[in-house]
Write a structure and sequence with these properties.
mainly alpha, Serine Threonine Protein Phosphatase 5, Tetratricopeptide repeat, 0% strand
């Protein structure tokens, strides 16, 4: 089990985050005793202003004076804890948060920051107990759910962490810190699951499937093919295996073997839409427009919106000489494609179709757009190459990643 070190986790709260709590509580803060109200409130406000200006020492002195003037002033104890936590004085922060909670058990944020202080001290059981109280009282607080997940990760509980971080992500879907930790949690859950699978049955066809998928992700189609073949030997009629094998045959430049694998998949599972669609793409590549159109349209009836379907239907219509129909598909592809390579080719094919239809100005414009997109991609590739060389020169180069062409 990989344990996340506290030193490697990014700070997911900052002085700005703490200031927000100070400002929020400033308007709610009132000392318990009327005779101390004016002095304590003034001290509190001056301390809050010091925090806003980044003067933690002055802020700490101010909040300490405020709690001395009004010992039952819960918000002052809480904000003193925030300052001590930001200063790295975690034991003092814990004492302040506990005092604030004893005075006001439902004080928003107190259990959260108490949990963070315990977490920084590697006191994970105390940290999880505190943050659990925060999420129970404030179930819509995304930060509290995130910290619950972070602490569970530190406790080697990735399943529990994933559940908490899923909840956090549902409350704050655009929060980058939440998404980062959520990804880490699910990655650990996945690794644990595969580890248990290998241990339970190292000769299972599932093991070979996982290894094949890993090789496919690493752009090693030959190795992936070998693993898929091993999986199929153990489970010859398992749905999905032949379709995945066919994809790797195509990536390896073996269209005949790919065709046979997709055909076999449809014999096992007549409803496998990807096998049918990929057979259509193979038909285009061998120039069989009739078969390509039949297969692709049949696949689209099963599942609309298949990736690159307009581009591939346009190619099939071109093979059939149906230039008007091809034009419509390429125009759709040119406005909807997100894959840069396919987008370029859609514009190139548009230029050809416009030329066939004797619409020369539009043909020239389409070819010009194709050339512009191609040049932009070339420039981007050159920039990436320069950055990679710079990284290599500074001895911090990372391996370049490659991917297969989408089907």
């Amino acid at each position: 089990m990989v344990k996340l070190s506290t030193t490697k986790l990014p700070r997911v709260y900052s002085p700005g985050f703490i200031f927000a709590w100070v400002l929020c509580l400033l308007f709610l803060a009132r000392p318990a005793h009327a005779q101390d109200s004016a002095d304590s409130t003034n001290l509190f406000e001056r301390a809050a202003e010091a925090m806003r200006s980044g003067d933690l020492n002055k802020a700490g002195e101010g909040f300490a004076a405020a709690v001395k003037a009004s010992p039952s002033f819960a918000e002052a104890h809480f904000n003193l804890g925030l300052v001590r936590e930001e200063q790295g004085r975690f034991e003092e922060a814990v004492g302040s948060f506990q005092k604030a909670l004893s005075l006001k058990p439902r004080l928003h944020g107190a259990n959260l920051f108490l949990a963070i202080a315990y977490y920084r001290m590697n006191s994970f059981p105390a940290a999880i107990a505190a943050v659990n109280k925060e999420t129970a009282v404030f179930p819509k607080d995304a930060s509290s759910w995130m910290w619950q997940g972070v602490i569970q990760l530190a406790m080697d509980r990735p399943e529990d962490a994933a559940a908490a971080l899923d909840k956090a992500a549902s409350l704050a879907p655009g929060n980058v810190d939440i998404l980062y930790h959520r990804g880490q949690a699910h990655l650990l859950v996945s690794k644990n699951s595969y580890g248990q699978m290998f241990k339970a049955d190292p000769k299972s066809w599932r093991v070979h499937q996982v290894l094949a998928q890993a090789n496919a992700e690493a752009d090693r189609p030959v190795d992936a093919i070998a693993e898929y073949q091993a999986a199929i030997k153990l489970a010859p009629t398992q749905p999905g295996l032949h379709e995945e094998l066919g994809s790797e045959y195509r990536n390896a430049g073996k269209p005949l073997e790919a065709d046979a694998a997709f055909q076999r998949e449809l014999e096992i599972d007549p409803f496998n839409v990807l096998a049918r669609y990929k057979l259509g793409v193979l038909a285009i590549e061998r120039g069989d427009g009739v078969k390509a159109k039949e297969l692709i349209e049949a696949a689209l009836q099963q599942k609309a919106g298949l990736r690159h379907s307009d581009y591939n239907l346009g190619r099939a219509e071109m093979l059939l000489g149906q230039d008007e129909s091809a034009l419509k598909h390429f125009q759709t592809a040119s406005s909807s494609e997100t894959d840069p390579e396919v987008l370029q080719q859609a514009w190139f094919q548009l230029g050809i179709v416009f030329r066939r239809l004797h619409r020369m100005p539009e043909a020239q414009q389409a070819i010009a757009t194709f050339q512009r997109l191609k040049n932009e991609q070339a420039e981007k590739s050159q920039e990436q190459l320069k950055k990679l060389r710079a990284q290599q020169d500074s001895d911090v180069a990372q391996p370049a990643e490659t991917g297969t062409t989408p089907q």
